[in-house]
Design goal:
- Chains A, B: Belongs to the FPP/GGPP synthase family.
- Chains A, B: Pfam families: polyprenyl_synt (PF00348).
- The structure is a homodimer.
- Chain A is mostly helical and about 325 residues long.
- Chain A folds into 2 domains: about 1-130, Farnesyl Diphosphate Synthase (Orthogonal Bundle), CATH 1.10.600.10; about 160-325, Farnesyl Diphosphate Synthase (Orthogonal Bundle).
- Chain A has 15 helices and 2 strands.
- The first copy, chain A, has helices spanning about 10-25, 35-45, 50-60, 65-90, 105, 110-130, 135-155, 165-190, 195-220, 230-235, 245-250, 255-260, 270-280, 285-300, 310-325; strands at about 95, 100.
- Chain A has a two-stranded antiparallel sheet with strand order 1-2.
- In chain A, helix 11 (about 245-250) crosses helix 14.
- At the A-B interface, helix 4, helix 6 and helix 7 of A face helix 4, helix 6 and helix 7 of B.
Chain lengths: ~325, ~325
């Protein structure tokens, strides 16, 4: 099993991530072996494992650190993330993810619906097996609930051309940012008893998540020519407008608005044109500045963490997320 | 809000069920009010509330009974049931349920996917808020996991014409029976500390669930003429074969098998013919006998419960499930 090369510089963390994936392998059990393989394949498809990595890193502070419990938590976070991806793929009718066929396209939406549901329950099983107290559980379930509520609210905002940056930020704060916040917060809670400390970590995670999602949306507009227009095409057809487009619409209202109104009739060449207009109107640049703002907010709070090697890793990877190219 | 008339004879229980639904109303919160209304509407659409009723009834035994905690549990059980129904409707592309438009057909599968997911997390929130111990949580999450695993395994069995009664029983024991078993078991655990007692209740619930599902499948074949063929049509097109058809296939192999092989091309008139063949081959009668067997098993175990008025209600409703007509 391959762990993403971004962790090569941190061999200890890499080993922990490997054990986390092995734990997941042990916990996922489906009688139908084909479906089990599909789920495990998705869990091992070379994602960055950022969320479990942050959970592991934030569990290192404080006195009550247990590596075993931290791994369980990291596994639960990654499983939660994966189950939301499996369900996202149903909604988006996505045929591929990370260059592999999605569960919904390969096995049908029936398998995708129940596989995601099943993983949800595995998340809770792992959490309750390793929770020290009912309070631990409550903290995690509240975090998970916010993530799903974020998704429900996102629905509301589709095809809303006058969507503001505020709407966009609300949207991504509901889902991506909450998941990162949950990873950092529950990691911190695992290692330390101090709630104020964990709360600080919650905000760190939230800022990281915001920066991460904005950069993800920026990357859709700066893809290599081979993929040009493709991710943009899927989003705009479904009425999903992200930071670059929203910023661009402030400057270049007419032609861009005309193209977007075609909605599901938007063609590949329309999408390329949209991409070009967005770039030229400075949408990409402004979105990058916005991402940077969140990264800086996160880094400022990270500064207050105890001076350990884990703190340094957190700093490095958080900075690197901003300059990544995929 | 209407509580199903089947509870009119038990005013105290009816009042508890009403409070359970009110609790659910309080716990479900979605910013998008249209979606919230859709979810609450589904939760109040006049279902029989059998699962929460059993949870409430079984919580009455033992010394540590807390009405408030029992209601939370009952609410969680009903929410879990509803979330699986919302997701089932995506899989089955069902347009109506209990004579109302399904969430997936009214709001699209995006809303249905996330609404079901959201309700899952509400289940866990309620459970963790009212759990006395982490062990309580583990018990409930394990039960929930079995339900979802049952669904994943069911996928495997579609279009399997040589499906045996054993396959069928495995299938329904995974989903429906587990949910009833969980209702009775966790109800019992709530009121009593004795695990052996709760284990007995688990089996009672499981037998009740088996009888209930078999009768549900029987009713598809004994519908009034107005609906003749309709539920059967949907099932056989999707390759879902239930007890009446499986028993009938033992007697009448040729014509029935020929019709079933048409799969998604099965017409309304084919379905009526299937229904007729199944009836004439004794499939309905044999399925009823099978349901009766499970009811008897349940009643035998119910006999061992402490002699209270709740025991009597459990006996009555369990017997009545067998002779219901809808």
């Amino acid at each position: 099993m391959q762990i993403h090369p971004m962790w090569d510089s941190y061999p200890e963390l890499k080993a922990e991530l490997k054990e986390t994936i092995e734990l997941i392998n042990k916990e996922v059990f489906v009688r139908n072996k084909e479906i089990e393989a599909a789920i495990l394949d998705m869990l091992q498809s070379g994602g960055k494992l950022l969320r479990p990595a942050y959970a592991l890193l934030f569990s290192s502070f404080g006195d009550s650190h247990s590596p075993e419990r931290a791994r369980s938590l990291a596994a639960a976070i990654e499983l939660l993330h994966t189950s939301t991806l499996i369900h996202d793929d149903i909604v988006d009718e996505a045929s591929t993810r990370r260059k592999k066929q999605t569960i919904q396209s390969k096995y049908g939406k029936d398998v995708a619906v129940y596989a995601g549901d099943y993983l949800f329950t595995v998340v809770f099983r792992i959490l309750s097996k390793h929770a020290d107290s009912v309070e631990d559980m409550t903290v995690n379930t509240k975090g998970m609930e916010r993530i799903l509520m974020g998704e429900l609210n996102q629905m509301h905002l589709r095809y809303k051309q006058n969507m503001s940056i505020r709407d966009y930020l609300t949207q991504i704060s509901g889902k991506t940012a909450q998941l990162f916040a949950l990873a950092c917060f529950s990691g911190a809670m695992e290692g330390s008893d101090k709630k104020s400390f964990a709360r600080n970590c919650y905000y760190i995670g939230s800022h990281i998540g915001m920066a991460f999602q904005i950069m993800d949306d920026v990357l859709d507009y700066t893809q290599s020519s081979k993929n040009l227009g493709k991710p943009v095409l899927e989003d705009v057809r479904q009425g999903i407008y992200t930071a670059p487009i929203i910023f661009a619409l402030r400057k270049e209202k007419k032609e861009l608005a005309y193209l977007l109104k075609k909605e599901s009739a938007i063609t590949q060449s329309d999408a390329q044109k949209i991409q070009q207009i967005v770039y030229e109107a400075g949408g990409v640049k402004e979105a990058k500045i916005l991402a940077e703002k969140y990264t800086k907010k996160a880094l400022k709070r990270i500064e207050s963490l105890p001076n350990t090697k884990e703190k340094q890793i957190i700093q490095e990877i958080t900075e690197n997320l901003l300059i990544r190219e995929m």
